[in-house]
């Protein structure tokens, strides 16, 4: 065999090995499993958060109250045969547990309604009217141009100050046929304080001193820092690439000043963030909706300062999904509940078994 033939044989052998390696890697990729989402209880760890409730609306019945539940914060199942759990409720569901151990939920019949309605429950099963708050939006300092619009009221109880803070978004510009987005870009987050959700601070105030559109704001606290998780409501462009994403601002104080929002932790066109701690209480699960009712995303971090990564899920393929929500769910809020409360909800409403595709 001459030198030329030997070189040719070496080349053919190398090509064959490369093809075998590619085939092997392709075969491995078909069956490979990505790492599981952290935060679940491992051997030797104690269970800190026993169960979870997702109070939400649906694609077909927007603005009404439905429940899904979970034992791990990742895999959710509908309750009550996928039907409403409280017919009187209207709004974007947001539930907060008060210092009295009772649960409070906020709602409003439409953005143009002047009232924020408040219901209370001992068990998350039976709700009764607690109060009504009607803000005088025109009295908001430095916001006399506010329109009579109240969007998606949210509630947070601050143990340090023993107060509830109620937030919502209000715009100051009407949309037009040529510029409908200016309505959304003009949204500003307002708040009031209350000790009992029956009486409230005198006038609404702006929560942030930076001048960008924000909606769907929730406040949470980790150690001594307050975090405002927001939707950046400016439309995304080359000059505002953060538009329609979930971002986080921080403060040492409940009412700010809050830092300018950090870089997005979601893709564009996501809204309605909701946050729960993992079962072992060491990781945060931040869910958000890709609207209008397209899918749900999940970002994961071991602290609210980040970094965050996006988990794989909501594909309805059981061998790919690391988290799973029922089809057609729309946004609301997730909270931790006890195993006893979970059992009571399941006993009352029953679980709907979800079907998944198998590859």
From TrEMBL:
Nucleotide-binding in keyword set: no
Parts of the chain that traverse the membrane: 14-32
One Gene Ontology MF term: hydrolase activity
Keywords: Hydrolase, Membrane, Transmembrane, Transmembrane helix
Protein's recorded name: Glycoside hydrolase family 43 protein
Species annotation: Flagellimonas marina
Lineage: Bacteria, Pseudomonadati, Bacteroidota, Flavobacteriia, Flavobacteriales
